[in-house]
């Protein structure tokens, strides 16, 4: 009977709604525990489905936390929640997106190396103008390849072949129009 089916559907919907409410309560408890855990800047939750993730994101937002989802396929996607003062840097987020653990010590080391490289670069710039760049005269530029005499000699022997690519004047004497020439053919 259709009423039986409708009743069954309604019962399922109510059950689903109850489960969502219970799940939300559980997430609210976990999030408040996380907030109180002073030594914990971030917390990674178990993989969960899309609806559960959206509930957790909402709970986190209400609690004033930052949250992100990571993981490629639906089965392994999980949420990480961050306290505001420990909001992740782009580097940190990229690491999670690659499925890596974030190592702040290693990241700090990399940052220091980059900074050092930048400082060295700056120091070199301050040292004064670099020696002039490559000279503009091509003979100077290629002197190491062709020597200084060869370039001049080569330039002297470059006489144009007069016949190359030229139409003899005699061939140009045809003053007929295209129509006249076509008629003749």
From TrEMBL:
InterPro entries: R3H_dom (IPR001374), R3H_dom_sf (IPR036867), R3H_sperm-antigen (IPR034068), SPAG7 (IPR017330). GO terms for molecular function: nucleic acid binding. Pfam families: R3H. Transmembrane segments: none annotated. Residues 116-141 are annotated as: Disordered. Residues 21-84 form the R3H domain. This is SPAG7 protein. It comes from Pachyramphus minor. The lineage of its organism: Eukaryota, Metazoa, Chordata, Craniata, Vertebrata.
């Amino acid at each position: 009977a259709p009423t039986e089916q409708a009743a069954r559907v309604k019962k399922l919907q109510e059950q689903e709604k109850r489960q969502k409410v219970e799940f939300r309560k559980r997430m609210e408890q976990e999030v408040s525990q996380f907030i109180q855990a002073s030594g914990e800047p971030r917390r990674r939750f178990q993989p969960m489905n899309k609806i559960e993730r959206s509930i957790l994101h909402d709970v986190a937002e209400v609690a004033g936390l930052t949250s992100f989802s990571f993981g490629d396929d639906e089965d392994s996607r999980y949420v990480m929640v961050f306290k505001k003062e420990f909001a992740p840097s782009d580097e940190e987020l990229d690491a999670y997106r690659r499925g890596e653990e974030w190592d702040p010590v290693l990241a700090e080391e990399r940052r220091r190396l980059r900074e050092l490289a930048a400082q060295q670069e700056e120091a070199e710039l301050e040292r004064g103008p670099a020696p002039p760049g490559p000279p503009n005269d091509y003979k100077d530029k290629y002197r190491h390849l062709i020597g200084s005499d060869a370039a001049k000699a080569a330039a002297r022997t470059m006489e144009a072949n007069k016949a190359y690519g030229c139409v003899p004047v005699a061939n140009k004497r045809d003053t007929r129009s295209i129509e006249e020439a076509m008629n003749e053919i």
